[in-house]
Amino acid sequence: MTQILLQVDFTHQGPFGEEMAQQLAGLAASINQEPGVIWKIWTENAAEQLGGGIYLFESEASAQAYLTMHTARLTAMGITGIRGCLFSVNTALSAINHADFASK
């Protein structure tokens, strides 16, 4: 089974850090219920005013469906500059570098 990595980033005016964690805890929990999601790493760069995430999905279809839904959700929130890229994961090489791709 080929797992798919989804990288998303966008312009984000904040909040960042703990304030962001408190405000978006409900959204974070809901992402666990999305079809095909294995895990997500939340990313932020306050200096560059960027937010985003790195996701691991069970399939390309589930990653693409999530990207379509998430782009619409972010757009509805007034967020602009949304970029999403899908990548196949080379698990053999990634394992050498201690990556853990176990399914949920």
Write the layout of secondary structure elements.
Blueprint: E1 4-11, H1 17-23, H2 25-31, E2 37-45, E3 50-57, H3 60-76, E4 83-88, H4 91-96
Antiparallel strand pairs: 1-3, 1-4, 2-3
Keywords: Monooxygenase, Oxidoreductase
GO molecular function, one term: monooxygenase activity
Pfam families: ydhR
Query: What's the CATH class label?
Result: Alpha Beta
Which fold name fills CATH's third level, the topology?
A: Alpha-Beta Plaits
Instruction: Please mark out the parts with pLDDT under 50 across 5 or more consecutive residues, or reply none.
Output: none
- Spatial extent as radius of gyration: 14 Å
How much of the residues is beta strand, in percent? 25-35%
Alpha carbon gap, first and last residue: 14 Å
Mean pLDDT: 93
CATH architectural category: 2-Layer Sandwich
The main sheet orders its strands as 2-3-1-4
Question: Helices and strands: which structural class?
Answer: alpha+beta
**H and E order:** EHHEEHEH
Helix proportion: 25-40%
Strand count, sense and barrel status of the largest sheet are: 4 strands, antiparallel
Structurally, how many domains make up the residues?
Answer: 1
Shape: globular
- The number of E-state strands comes to 4
Number of helices: 4
GO molecular function: monooxygenase activity
Pfam families: ydhR (PF08803)
InterPro entries: Dimeric_a/b-barrel, YdhR
Keywords: Monooxygenase, Oxidoreductase
